[in-house]
Amino acid sequence: MTQLPALLLLGGGKMGSALLAGWRTRGVEQVVVIDPDPAATALADGKVTVVTSCAAIPAGFAPAAIILAVKPQLAAEALAPLAGRIGDAVVISIMAGKTIAWLRALCGAEAAVLRAMPNTPAAVRQGVTVVCAGANVRPTQIALAEALLGCVGIVSFIENEALLDPVTAVSGSGPAYVFLLVELLEQAAIAQGIPADLAATLARQTVIGAGALLAASDQPAASLRKAVTSKAGTTEQALAVLMDPIAWPSAVNAAIAAATQRSRELSG
Ligand SMILES: NC(=O)c1ccc[n+]([C@@H]2O[C@H](COP(=O)([O-])OP(=O)(O)OC[C@H]3O[C@@H](n4cnc5c(N)ncnc54)[C@H](OP(=O)(O)O)[C@@H]3O)[C@@H](O)[C@H]2O)c1
């Protein structure tokens, strides 16, 4: 597949526009974006048409894929006008919690539907997306989904849709946990007397640098951690606190379990 085929994007917000930027870089035949937000018109260019409703889709436009990137709570309202216009397109939903069964109930029982969970580093093409395909999805449509989502990062497929709940907890919500680490490092630095502006720089750049080091290395994270940890040194003292079973191991497990449970509750 050299150039991506014609695509319909429902929702040109944070995730939708990140995907669109990735498709532009790859090269795409044509994209129609449906988004009622006036700010979305900024997404338009020679290849991208922005319309405010389904009724304004250009006549004869036949997308190979329809990507659903609206908030889950608006999904039923946003999808309803599309029913009957899906044709042979594969439907790819990135909406949290909306199951394949729910999507097929709206799109038609015969619709080819994939459900995907990306994350916000997609905006810098460093995302990770996990995809689950429903019945009726052809191999060429799976390849198209992989190409579309692969424009913004790594793509993995799973067969058990229920695993999308813990996936949401780990990688979908995960960037927030890393940002929280920056905040906590900054606060701890200030508590040790480091001036606030330097504390912010140290916390931020340490996470950016550690991420870049991880990206550049083929070593597991544990090896990189051990490489920083000298016997009886400062890192060892800190890690003894953090790695106490009742500290980070317990907190991270509890956090992921709570987010997984919330994802299950929101599913429909
Ligand atoms: N953000 C994340 O970390 C993340 C990660 C994985 C998956 N997701 C999923 O990605 C989806 C989009 O999230 P987001 O953060 O990109 O949300 P967002 O920034 O709010 O974008 C959604 C866009 O859809 C527009 N919209 C509202 N009603 C519409 C309609 N009827 N037809 C077409 N467009 C409509 C919104 O316009 P208005 O602003 O005018 O309402 C907005 O521009 C969600 O389902 C979310 O679960 C998000």
Brief digest:
By secondary structure, the protein is an alpha/beta fold. The chain contains 10 helices and 8 strands. It has 2 domains: 7-164, NAD(P)-binding Rossmann-like Domain (Rossmann fold); 174-266, ProC C-terminal domain-like fold (Orthogonal Bundle), CATH 1.10.3730.
CATH topology tier name of the largest domain: Rossmann fold
CATH architecture of the largest domain: 3-Layer(aba) Sandwich
If you average the pLDDT, what whole number results?
A: 96
Count of beta strands: 8
Ligand set: NADP nicotinamide-adenine-dinucleotide phosphate
CATH H-level superfamily of the largest domain: NAD(P)-binding Rossmann-like Domain
- What's the helix count? 10
Span of the ends, CA to CA: 34 Å
Kindly estimate the percentage of residues that lie in beta strands according to DSSP: 5-15%
Q: Strand count, sense and closure of the main sheet?
A: 8 strands, mixed
Task: Write down the CATH class of the largest domain.
Answer: Alpha Beta
Across the major sheet, the strand order is 3-2-1-4-5-6-7-8
How many domains in all? 2
What string gives the helices and strands in order? EHEEEHEHEEHEHHHHHH
Uncertain regions: pLDDT < 50 for 5+ in a row?
none
What characteristic shape results from the CA principal axes? Answer: elongated
Structural class: alpha/beta
